[in-house]
Write a structure and sequence with these properties.
By secondary structure, this protein is mainly beta. The protein has 1 helix and 13 strands, in the order E-E-E-E-E-E-E-E-E-E-H-E-E-E.
Amino acid sequence: ADDTVIHGQLATQNFSSTPYLSLYFFPRVLGLFKFDDSLLHPCAELVSAKLGFYNRPICPDCEMSETIGFYGVNREWFPQEVTWLNAASNSLWDEAGLSTSDRDEVSIATMIYESVDGVDIGNVDLTVLVQEWIAYLRDNQTGRANNGVAFFQDDTARADFHSVDASNPTQVPYLELVW
């Protein structure tokens, strides 16, 4: 899996190897997440796909955002190269910070928080999007390519999560697939 944030005020900086994902000051910081297609089985029938994030409580007095939208990404991006301005080192986004031609205009899912054994976990139902990725693997004339998801909040509250580079491997984001 790959994840990163892109930052409007640090428009040329890449954040792909940070151990956390911090979203704040909407719309200046957006998150990107992508899983490898090898997790997907084009011949199997997907029942559900749930993306899970572990909350990273760095600011106990800060309000946690409850309205994080997830949007399918419409073009390829490279984790080690992506910035606010570029999807890759030689490829600009249509508009800085992902235009609606670079991502879905309407969110495909919204994060829902739950507490499990005192740990806050954000869950997102991505079943419809992952089914589209699988359809594309079967026949690239249908579905859509797996370019991952963009995510950001609709308010000014913070959202902090452990990334795939988290120091505790039990707190990395995960995609739970039920076949």
